[in-house]
Design brief:
4% strand, two-stranded antiparallel ribbon, mainly alpha, single chain, 6 helices, 35% helix
Length: 98
């Protein structure tokens, strides 16, 4: 249950999607443990009400193609010059994505 865990012999196991905590009504471990509170979790209508409905961020595929259930707050460089970021296909300063 939860994020990647390490066993006695330090062999990692994959995330199981927090199926048990979610079934019990809790948020995933990653959302609860995120120190910067960059991750949220809940019904998509509530998430979009809280964070907005933007779901596009280059170089990810356009939301009209993938229909993601997420909301994204763009980094400062994308807000300042969205055309440049889309044309170049990458975020210029990865440190702004925190």
């Amino acid at each position: 249950m939860g994020a990647v865990r390490y066993g006695f012999h330090f062999n990692g196991r994959r995330c199981d999607g927090c199926t048990e905590p979610i079934a019990a009504g809790s948020a995933p471990v990653c959302a609860e443990a995120c120190p910067s509170r960059a991750l949220g979790f809940g019904p998509i209508d509530e998430v979009r009400e809280r964070f907005g409905d933007r779901a596009d961020l280059p170089p990810l595929p356009e939301a009209t193609v993938t229909a993601p259930h997420l909301a994204i707050t763009l980094p400062a460089c994308a807000e300042a010059d969205p055309g440049r970021v889309r044309a170049e296909g990458r975020v210029q300063n990865g440190r702004e994505i925190v």
